[in-house]
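> forwarded from #structure-qc
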């Protein structure tokens, strides 16, 4: 297990802000030599704390700027029903995130598509057609004043 100290926390914060930062710049920002900083980053990677690096995309410019969160309730709470739902959702390109949650519903989805008509098509023809789905509640995102997802 990696010892998480203030320096490791700062490394993670800086990489979270800019995964393309050079090792020299990262070392300068966290107060380490470049070689010590590189060792720390590699240790965080080996330990599985850093699992990858991603590009943050402007979905609007890619034609999928419509975002909604959807609460989904299933009509059957069996393992088979959940697995069938998850398989179907994993094939839907509009679904950017799928979380199995606690509470009155089973799943919370993050959907990205071009516009309201394409969302309606997804809602009706894909999600609404799944036999496991009992209820759908949509929350359309109007703005995101804070979004730190990578």
């Amino acid at each position: 297990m990696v010892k998480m100290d203030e320096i490791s926390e700062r490394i993670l914060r800086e990489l979270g802000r800019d995964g393309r930062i050079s090792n020299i710049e990262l070392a300068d920002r966290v107060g380490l030599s470049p070689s010590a900083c590189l060792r720390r980053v590699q240790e965080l990677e080996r330990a599985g704390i850093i699992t990858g690096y991603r590009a943050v995309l402007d979905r609007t410019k890619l034609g999928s700027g419509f975002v909604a969160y959807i609460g989904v309730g299933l009509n059957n709470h069996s393992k088979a029903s959940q697995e069938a739902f998850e398989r179907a959702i994993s094939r839907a390109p509009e679904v950017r995130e799928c979380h199995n949650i606690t509470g009155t519903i089973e799943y919370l989805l993050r959907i990205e598509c071009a516009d309201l008509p394409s969302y309606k098509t997804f809602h009706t023809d894909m999600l609404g057609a799944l036999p496991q789905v009992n209820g759908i509640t949509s929350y359309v995102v109007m703005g995101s004043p804070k979004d730190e997802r990578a």
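QC bot note: The chain has five helices and four strands. Residues 6-46 form a domain with the Arc Repressor Mutant, subunit A fold (CATH 1.10.10.10).
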